[in-house]
UniProtKB/TrEMBL annotation:
Keywords: Oxidoreductase. The keyword Cytoplasm does not apply. It comes from the Eukaryota. Belongs to the Gfo/Idh/MocA family. Pfam families: GFO_IDH_MocA_C3. The keyword DNA-binding does not apply. This is Myo-inositol 2-dehydrogenase. It comes from Durusdinium trenchii. Residues 1-61 form the GFO/IDH/MocA-like oxidoreductase domain.
């Protein structure tokens, strides 16, 4: 559920690999629990630079004004109805292209520019270089899942030296 958050952390941290990862989660919905997954979780990362980051997610919609970085879905309206029995917000736009129209436009524009620049261009070289960070994101994701399943903090250095052939990307 958090792969995009992990990708964003990788980008924001300048590609640092966390020293340790601690994850916890719970399954409130029986059908999620049956498949061995969680429907709410939180993951904390400690980086060599001293950066500490935490991400959380829930399959049920929750919002909080106390979070420093929050991505909210675009709503069908900006009108919020406040009544004695509570506040009512409009629903989110139905599809991803509706909710993230500008992001889709930007992505398509960048893709067209990349194709036009050609495979030998500096732009293409930089895109290829940026793609090299993805193994770190996969490594972090696997570590977070291990932490959740084992119920303890996982130190990446120990994990990488102890289990290089256990399906963990080196």
């Amino acid at each position: 559920m958090l792969i995009h958050d992990f990708d964003m952390l990788d980008f924001l941290s300048g590609g640092q690999i966390p020293e340790s990862v601690t994850a916890t989660g719970h399954s409130y919905h029986p059908e999620i629990k049956e498949i061995g997954d969680v429907d709410i979780c939180a993951v904390m990362f400690k980086y060599p630079s001293g950066l500490i980051a935490m991400v959380d997610t829930c399959r049920d919609v929750m919002t909080s004004a106390s979070r420093p970085l929050v991505s909210e879905n675009e709503l069908t309206s900006t009108v919020e109805l406040a009544k004695a029995d509570g506040h009512r917000m409009p629903s989110a736009m139905h599809s991803f292209p509706q909710r993230y129209l500008q992001a889709y436009r930007s992505e398509l524009t960048e893709f067209i520019e990349l194709v036009r620049a050609g495979p030998e261009s500096e732009m293409h070289r930089l895109e290829q270089q940026a793609m090299l960070r993805h193994p770190n994101v996969v490594r972090t994701t696997i570590t977070a899942e291990m932490s959740w399943k084992q119920g303890k903090t996982v130190n990446l250095a120990e994990l990488m030296s102890d289990t290089p052939s256990a399906g963990y990307p080196a």
